[in-house]
From TrEMBL, chain B:
Annotated Gene3D superfamilies: Phosphate transport system protein phou homolog 2, domain 2 (1.20.58.220)
Matching Pfam families: PhoU
Signal sequence extent: none
GO cellular component: cytoplasm
Subcellular location field: Cytoplasm
Record domain PhoU: where: 16-104, 119-203
Complexes and interactors: Homodimer.
Primary localization class, coarse: cytoplasm
Protein name (database record): Phosphate-specific transport system accessory protein PhoU
Keywords, ordered alphabetically: Cytoplasm, Phosphate transport, Transport
Function: Plays a role in the regulation of phosphate uptake.
NCBIfam families for this protein: phoU_full
Organism this protein belongs to: Eubacterium plexicaudatum ASF492
Family, as annotated: Belongs to the PhoU family.
Lineage per the UniProt record: Bacteria, Bacillati, Bacillota, Clostridia, Eubacteriales
Length: 559, 214
């Protein structure tokens, strides 16, 4: 701004200076040369009169420095010259002013010297005798004058420069001040130059447009945030340089980071080798997935490349919590493996005995023992298959009728059935409690109590006790089985309800269980909407309580 | 020119982070291999060490190139020189993790259960490495300080391991070789702790311009 104003001031000042210089010099110069010409003519006429009267004598006596007088004969020969020797001078007949004077009585001309710095004015007059008298004077040319004025002109130029510089900066400051004070937030409320009105109008329009676009953007952003905020899956958006564009709360939790990580490299959040490898893979091949473990949970991570018009613009990282699925999958795998193993063991044993008998290696007196062995193992197999069928029935959740049953009655029935085994181990079995009727499934209750008591006896010390207590509260009924057995180590307590899970793997055969008992109990209790509570200390015994929540009306208590 | 330099610095940071992550993985795998007696994991540590060494070469070349071509000053120079120093420590961590893994393969599946402190040491050293790398990634001087402080814990544990191993030898002279192997492992963990401290100090240097070790 200042520069431009300065330039224009300088151009104007320079133009004015030059123009006025030219005009003034031109006027003055022409005026002075006019005056000089007239003077010259006057001098000549005086000199002409004198020469006609005195002839050569006048010229010889004339002492003039300023003027030079030349007397030229009619044929052009120089008769006399006041400043040089006339005789030696060349013929002047071809000079313009002489020719003119010979023709018209008077003649005039001017000639520049070779350097252009001097100009000689000539004036000639024909005398009565036909000869011509010429007067000449040399004067400086206009250029000399201009040259002489250079110093003051330079001073003027310098002063103009300084003045225009100062002026320019002041003017631009003055012009800019209201512009700088403009409030662009509210462009129409400014009181400033009229010329700015269209600009301010345009800014105002753009403001409105920007506001609209901003709110639209904000809305879309909010939508996106709301969608991703509630997701249980972790979601991270990356740009093509692996910088985090967005990360949802689930992902923040998974990767242990804060929202401030947005805008940083994903490496700073998660630098483990396999994750960064998976992201690289996704960038190069489009998709990759891996499983990672974090704090005891398993996550499946999918990484997908995002493309737009064939250009890679980023990647989406999605993390699913697959802990339960992985757990279920592992359980299923284990179950299959266990079932086949458990089914095979008795069969193997049957086959072994049968093979021995087939090859006649069994003495006839041992035959009964071997056949008995085959029968026991087959019975074991049947029990196992029965258990598996029961479990799968519970798994399928087939409908079983709910009826009013007496817990006490079922318990005493079951305990009567187990009396023999208990007696074999010299275990005292006791049932306490009154009749409690609840709405339930008789078969499942029998199953539950049988398995619990069976375990209580099986995993008991010789001469131990098993106490079964039936009790009822206002809106619940419970069965408690307490034994004085070997107890369950704490690290196994969480797993004993799993299928085929055994605390002491080496004892399984000895105790004759299938490993499915507690699993059946768990499923049956689940089917009956009950709850299992387990308390156990190693060597002290185990207490398992099954609690059934019942509507008040369904619990019938007889006191 | 500057933007290219910035890009290269970002790249340097990335590679350093990756190398740090590999170190973390190597020491975590080494301590897991020890506690589980898992020879396969020990093999993985050995292959990780190879990768860490290659990474060191790459980063070293990049640093030297940056130093020569860009002639960085002030903070940039600090960052690059700290990187040059850090990769040496990271490489040592990788190598020592590999050394531990190698000893584990000779332990015949024994897991150092006789000397519980060695497991604490493994955990503490592993955590120190994680903390120092974390400090680098987040450029966090406080975290670097935490890593440096934890070194005392590791040093204490080393002394405890030593005395419990002396007891082990006294009680069961036939296990002398085994005890010495465990001592070597403990020493390596202790050294890894020291390298983690070095890394943390260089992180602090590249952020603040002051090196505590000096």
């Amino acid at each position: 701004m200042t520069k431009k104003i300065f330039k224009s001031i300088m151009v104007v000042a320079g133009a004015v200076l030059i123009a006025s210089l030219v005009i003034i010099m031109g006027c003055l110069y022409s005026y002075f040369s006019n005056v000089q010409g007239k003077q010259l003519e006057d001098e000549l006429s005086l000199a002409a009169i004198a020469v006609e009267k005195d002839g050569r004598n006048y010229l010889e006596e004339l002492q003039s420095r300023e003027y030079r007088l030349t007397w030229v004969a009619e044929n052009g020969d120089v008769i006399y010259d006041t400043q040089s020797d006339g005789e030696s001078m060349e013929n002047h007949a071809d000079r313009e002013e002489i020719q003119e004077a010979l023709r018209n009585k008077e003649g005039k001309s001017s000639r520049y010297s070779t350097t252009l710095l001097e100009k000689t004015l000539y004036c000639a007059r024909r005398l009565n005798d036909g000869s011509v008298l010429r007067i000449s004077v040399s004067s400086v040319t206009i250029w000399v004058l201009v040259l002489g004025m250079i110093q003051p002109i330079l001073i003027v130029v310098v002063v103009t420069l300084i003045l225009s510089g100062v002026l320019a900066s002041r003017i631009s400051k003055h012009i800019m001040e209201p512009l700088n004070r403009l409030d662009l937030e509210k462009p129409l409320e400014n009181d400033t130059y009229e010329e700015l009105a269209p600009l301010l109008n345009r800014i105002n329009k753009q403001h409105k447009q920007i506001d609209m676009q901003l709110s639209e953007l904000q809305r879309k952003n909010d939508e996106f945030a709301q969608i991703t905020y509630g997701m249980t899956e972790g979601l991270v958006l990356l740009n093509e340089k692996n910088i985090i564009l967005n990360i949802n709360p689930a992902a923040l939790k998974l990767f242990h980071t804060k929202r401030s990580s947005i805008g940083k490299d994903f490496l700073t959040v998660e630098r483990s080798h396999n994750v960064s490898h998976a992201i690289q893979d996704a960038f190069s091949s489009g998709h990759s997935e891996i499983r990672i473990e974090r704090e005891g949970k398993e996550y499946q991570i999918h990484v997908n490349r995002i493309e737009s018009n064939g250009i890679v613009i980023g990647a989406v990282v999605l993390a699913f919590d697959i802990t339960e699925a992985a757990f279920a999958e592992r359980n299923r795998r284990e179950f299959t493996a266990n079932v086949s193993h458990e089914l095979k063991t008795p069969l193997q044993s049957i086959m072994g005995s049968a093979e021995l008998m087939e090859n006649g290696l069994v003495k006839s007196e041992d035959m009964t023992r071997f056949v008995g062995h085959i029968r026991t193992e087959a019975g074991r197999l049947v029990t196992l298959i029965d258990d598996i069928i029961r479990l799968s029935q519970l798994d399928e959740g087939c409908d079983m009728p709910f009826e009013n049953v007496d817990l006490c009655e079922i318990a005493s029935e079951v305990m009567a059935g187990l009396a023999d085994i208990a007696a074999a181990k010299d275990i005292e079995v006791a049932l306490t409690g009154k009749k409690v009727y609840i709405k339930s499934v008789r078969r499942l209750l029998t199953e539950i109590i049988f398995n619990l008591c069976d375990n209580a006896i099986k995993y008991n010390k010789n001469g131990g006790t098993v106490e079964v207590a039936i009790s009822s509260q206002e809106n619940s009924a419970s069965i408690t089985v307490k034994d004085s057995g070997i107890g369950i180590p704490p690290e196994h307590q969480a797993r004993i309800f799993e299928r085929f899970y055994r605390v002491d793997k080496s004892r399984s055969k000895e105790s004759g269980g299938t490993g499915l008992g507690l699993s059946i109990v768990k499923h049956a209790v689940q089917y009956l909407n009950g709850k299992i509570e387990l308390q156990s200390s190693l060597g002290q015994g185990t207490v398992i309580q099954i609690i059934f929540q019942q509507d008040k009306s369904d619990v019938v208590q007889f006191s | 020119m500057r933007s290219r330099f910035d890009e290269q610095l970002v790249m340097l940071n990335k590679e350093l982070t990756q190398m740090g992550a590999m170190c973390e993985e190597a020491i975590a795998a080494a301590s897991k291999a020890l506690t589980m007696g898992d020879i396969k994991l020990a093999d993985k540590v050995l292959s990780l060490d190879g990768e860490i060494n290659r990474m060191e070469r790459t980063i070293e070349t990049l640093c030297l190139k940056l130093l020569l071509q860009q002639q960085p000053v002030a903070r940039d120079l600090r960052q690059i020189s700290a990187a040059l120093k850090m990769i040496t420590d990271m490489e040592r961590i990788g190598t020592q993790a590999a050394d531990i893994a190698e000893i584990i393969t000779f332990l015949d599946g024994r897991t150092g259960g006789e000397c519980e402190q060695i497991r604490f040491m493994a955990d503490a050293a592993s955590q120190m490495v994680t903390e120092s790398i974390d400090a680098f990634v987040k450029q966090d001087v406080v975290l670097a300080g935490a890593a440096i402080d934890r070194d005392d814990v590791v040093d204490d544990l080393f002394l405890q391991v030593k005395s419990s191993l002396i007891k082990l030898i006294a009680e069961k002279p036939t296990d002398g070789g085994y005890a010495l192997d465990l001592l070597m492992i403990a020493k390596y963990f202790e050294r890894i702790g020291d390298h983690a401290v070095n890394i943390a100090e260089w992180v602090a240097f590249s952020v603040t311009g002051e090196h505590k070790g000096a």
